Amino acid sequence: MNNSMRLFSKVVWAEACKQHRNYFNNRAIYISLFVWPVFSFLSAYYSYSAFDIRGTFISYLSDDNILLFLLIGYMAMSFFRSVVQSAWRFSMERQAGTLEYIYLSPANRMAVLLGNALSSVFESSVVMLIFGIMIMYYQRNALNIDVLGLISVMIIFVVMALLWGVFLNACFLYSRDTDFLFTVLEEPMEIFAGVKIPVVIFPYWARVISLIFPLTYILEALREVCLNHADIASVRIILIISIAIIIVLLTVTLVTIRVVEKHMRKSGNVILF
Amino acid sequence: MNFKVFCATIKKGIQIRIRAYPVSFMVGCILTSFYTILGSYLMYHYFFLGQLSESFELNARTTDYMSYAIVGSLMYQFIVRTCLNVSRTLITELREGTLESLMLAPFKRTSYFLGNMTMQTVLTIGETAVAAVIGIAFGFRISDFNLYHFIVAISLSLYGFFGLSLMLGCVMLYTRDTYISQNTLFAIIFLVCGITFPKEALPYCLQLFGNVIPVTDAVTLMRASLLGGLTDSEFLYLGLQEFILGTIYIVAGMPLMKHVEHIALEQMEG
Lengths: 273, 270
Known about the structure:
A: 74% helix, 0% strand, globular, B: mainly alpha, 11 helices
């Protein structure tokens, strides 16, 4: 047991290092990691300027914390978006011809996918995270944090982002068609997961769509504990749903890995194309 | 200007478009504009319950937020498509391996780029029209249409966009990169050019940034021609400003492009 854990973590680490070497050799990557998210955050923030903030009926929102409300949204999204990009890069393995090496090696498939998601979640979001924490510190008076709540929500958040990434990666073991990812997961996630507009005020049809995105639930919990001093008890329903989503994502991923490999063995050829 | 090169470029462009590019690419661009409009719609009607700030009414010179945002996002779609195509022409030729043969042919820079621009404009007008129809469902109303202003606004916008595309094209060809440069420019435009909110809401330094990109005035002119809000003399002043800005971009861009082409050809491998 101990030995297999050691092997598992070895593969996770190796894959994470590989991803790092692959994508951080070029400085321009920092533009895409920092400049784009910050600019889109600023655009959303200034687009609020067209409105009278007192018009909204979200009780805990005011002129003071609207910036933080939005910032939390964009920080959380940068985690979820980074795994979308990692999944897209993972599909390159197939084109580059390295996917079959992974299959030929004795590496645990789950560990490979996890390593990939791990590297992208932490490396790609760290710049945005630092930026966010700086702004939060600057605006700390508007924060209304429940520390215990925040810690537990953060743990669930990170696990969820990781498994979301693993799940997306697993989808690409099966399919080569990557375009749908961006059509479905880039802009719609920004709108429907409540990144810039709270889900609570959505009309019925939009709420139904918002339920698809795991980010919707955990983002709501994050904002409640950061801005509304909500403790664990008051966000427990969201947390229970989030844990359920985590279990579902994990199960689906494990099943997908198994099914895909079986399928490959039967119908694939040496180069998997 | 060489008319033969101009026509040949258009013909070549349309043929490539029909044979090599799937329709999904166009659909993607319309979707982007759809999501921007949808975001504004939810924000205006549901989040803030239709309550605009005083500064918006003062700076935007209209109280019709939806039309304001829709015109902005349609113009944004237009500039994105123009840049994506006109700026990328030469680097695409380089990547596809046709830059060398293009340079061997009797290639006239001005005609070539104008041809590309014309073809692109015709195609984009179709896409924008589709997006505008979607916009009507979300509350796009043309409240104060002025035909002369509209024609002036369109011509000046195209002029300015052409200049901007040339500059972006130089950067792309020089750095051999399209992904980072184009997306960074689009993020900047969306932020500083008054696409979904008046640029007066921004800090002063960002406003200055917006003033030197020939998109800001183009969007304002187009809004004025459709929704009103500007006097004739203000319109003329802005139009002149856009014209001068566009001219600077074109006058600087053309020789720069020639220079960058030489560099690209010298360094080209294979």
